[in-house]
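Entry 14. Structure prediction run on the chain below.
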Amino acid sequence: MQVMKNALGISLFVAGSIFGAQAIAIDFVEAAPKQAKVLVDNDKVRVIHATFKKGDKVPAHSHPDIVVYILKEGKVKFTNADGKVVESDPKVGEAFFRPAVTHSHEHLEDSEAVIVELKK
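Output returned:
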């Protein structure tokens, strides 16, 4: 029994090492429960209204493919699972598609968006 537990532990460690943050990242709504409100959730999409204050930090989480519509512009610093840092400064009314991603983010200004997660 102990051998099986050790083998399972080693397998999980190896899987976590191979897949990095993607293996341990949580759902966006779980990562930002105070900022993210689910408006629609069905077998095709999940629509989320997200409101952030300057200084809000959201820990590593994953999204499937998403469409984002900006309601209130505000600078955001994203850190991808591979460590790459990207700053974004979208404008009100912009809409864009982003492929599935695992990242964390820090809000450098207040911001607000509607996020549509596409389900397969």
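Residues 1 and 7 are 10 Å apart (CA to CA).
Filed with the rest of this week's runs.
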